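Side project, low priority. Logging it here so it doesn't get lost.
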Amino acid sequence: MQPTSPNMARAELLMSQGRYDIAEEHVRLALSEDPDNPLPHAWLALCFSRREQFSPATDEARRAVGLEPSEPFYHYILASIFNSRGMPKESEEAVRQALELDPSESSYWGLLASLKLQAKKYKESLEAAERGLECDAEDGTCLNVRAMAQQGLGLKADAERTIEGALRRRPDDPITHANMGWSLLHQSQPARAMEHFREALRLEPGMEWARTGIVEAMKARFFVYRWILAYFLWMQRLPSNLQWGLVLGALVASRIVRALGKTYPAAEPYLGVLLILYFVFCATTWLAVPLFNLILRLDRFGRLVLSKSESFAANMLGLALIPAIVSAVGWGVQGGTWEERFFITAPACIPVALAATCREGLPRRLMWGIAAIVVVWAGWMLAITRSPGPLTLPYFSVYAMVCFFSPLLSNLLNTLTPRAKA
C-alpha cells in the first residue's frame, strides 16, 4: 500500500534498506499525526517482526485489522507474523481471510503454499502455488514453493524445470539458488549443488538454508554419507505420522525376527545377521550427522561452514567415542575384561549425536539434558565397575534402553513446532 505522509515515505525507504529501528521512529511520528490510520500500525508490526519482537508485532497487526477489516493486506501481515512465531494454524486462518478479500494477490497464495509445504501437504501446497502463479507468473515465492512441493511429490524433473525457469527470470535470487542446490542434493549431485549454495551465500551471506546445504554437500562427498543423506531426504518428504510408522514398524519387525529365531532354530543364525544389520543401520543413521560433522572439523574449509552448535555437538561426540574406540582396540588385541568395561560408554554416543539433530530451542536443550544424564550415568557405572563386563551390571539394561530408545524421543521432539519468543 502507498504511504500517506512524508514520515511514512521515509519509513518505506528505511524499511527497504533493512533499517527497521529508524523506520519505527518515522512510523510512530506518522501515528502521532493520525492514530486511527491502520497503515502505520501495519508497518509498525512489520518493524517489530523484523526485529523479532513478535508480541508487539502481533498487537499492532491486530490493531490494523480491527481498524480496517476489509483490507486484505492487514490480514496478510498478521498471517506472516503468526508464521514467524511458529503458529501455522493461526497463520493459515489469517491468510485465508486475506484471500477471501482478494484472491488475485500472488503473495497471499505464496504464504498459503508455504504453510502447506511446512505441513508436508505437498499436493495442497502445489495447488496454492499454481494459483499464485496464475496471478503473477514471476512470483518468486510461488515458483520456489512449487518446486519444493514437486520435489516432495517425487516429481524431480518437474521441480528442476521449475527452478531453472525461476533462475532464468531471477538469476540473482539467493533463495532460488539455494532451492536449486537442495534439488541437486536430492538427485545425488553434491558438486553441482555446492555451486548454487555458494552463489546463494554470495548473494545473501547470512542465509542459514544455504549454509546447511553446503555442509550437507561437503559430507555427501563421502560415498557412505551420500546414501544416508538420500535416506534422510526421503524420510523428510514423508508425513510425520508415516515417519513414526516406519520407526515403530522397524522395532516391531525386530521383535518378530527374534521370535522367529526361537521358533525355527535352524534359521536363527541368518535372522541374527538381519538383526545385526538392522541395528547397524539404525546406529549409522543416528550417528551420521554429527559423525560426519566431526570429520568436517578436521577439514580446513569444513570447519568454517559448521555452526557453533554443530561444532560443539561434533566435539562432544568425539569425546564420547574415545573410550569406545580405545576399548574396541584393546578388546580386539587382548580381549581383556578391563577394556570390556569401557563398552559401557558406547551407547552414550547415541543421545549425544541426536542432541545435535534436534530443533533449536527447547527440543535441543531437552535432548542435551538427556545426553548429559546418560554420560554421567555411564561414568558412574564405569567408576563402580572393576572386572565384570557391562552385561553383568545391574543398571546397564535400563541405561542401554534409555540410549537406544532416545531416537524415538528425538523424533517426537523434532515433530514439535517451536514458537518464537515474544
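Brief comment: The two ends are 27 Å apart (CA to CA).
Revisit when time allows.
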